[in-house]
Amino acid sequence: MRTQLTALALAASVLAAPATEILPRVSDAKVCDDVSKLCYSEYVAFSGVSYRIAIPDTATATAPYDIALSIVAPKAIGWAGIAWGGAMANNPLTLGWSNAATAIVSSRFTTGHTMPTAYTGASYTTLPSSKTNTTHWQLDVVCTGCSTWSGKTLDPGAAASLAFASSTTAPADPSNNASRFGIHNAKGKWSQDMSAAKLAGFATLVQAA
Ligand code: HEM
């Protein structure tokens, strides 16, 4: 009897326990932002940072296209970024971090394993849905120049190898997108199905966002 009760109690406690999130995770369904109304394909890294991507459904591999990126990070994350070519060096890097009540974007590039410097090959529009609240910061941008570099274009119909990096130490001067910052304490790669990130009506939705 006691064994049965113990087993019952155990089963009840397992049922009552909150589901433990297993990271990293790629979302099966799109994740839509309440404020911007944009819907993204999402990858959540083991660091707890979500990297969300949306591209026009009309994108082709023969011409550059804009990419909407949303980075949602717990407050403990000082900076987080994406390497569009799947490695730290020789491709556009998009970094974000919390700045007061919002978040800012920093466009970077490096040819090696040293602090990436400003990159003018990509330009960004920061959406008003970017924010910092008591638990998280969120950077929502549209990048022109992240889909193409060194003469190659990310194939919007295939899987792309993307990389992420983040640090729990914030940049030296958070209000300045050219600020110095230190090395990551989380980094990795994932395979992003670019066709899963396609969003119908992209340009109109971005305009409205
Ligand atoms: C002060 C800035 C940075 C420094 C000093 C730095 C340094 C390094 C070093 C020394 C490595 C190789 C050793 C290791 O595996 O830890 C590395 C690897 C890596 N870093 Fe950085 N890093 C910086 C910023 C960034 C940024 C901003 C990104 C992406 C947004 C990034 C992405 C990566 C990735 C994906 C790797 C894995 C190997 C590779 O792709 O080359 N790093 N970094």
UniProtKB/TrEMBL annotation:
Keyword check for Transferase: no
Sorted UniProt keywords: Signal
Leader sequence segment: 1-16
Cellobiose dehydrogenase-like cytochrome domain span: 32-203
Name of the protein: Cellobiose dehydrogenase-like cytochrome domain-containing protein
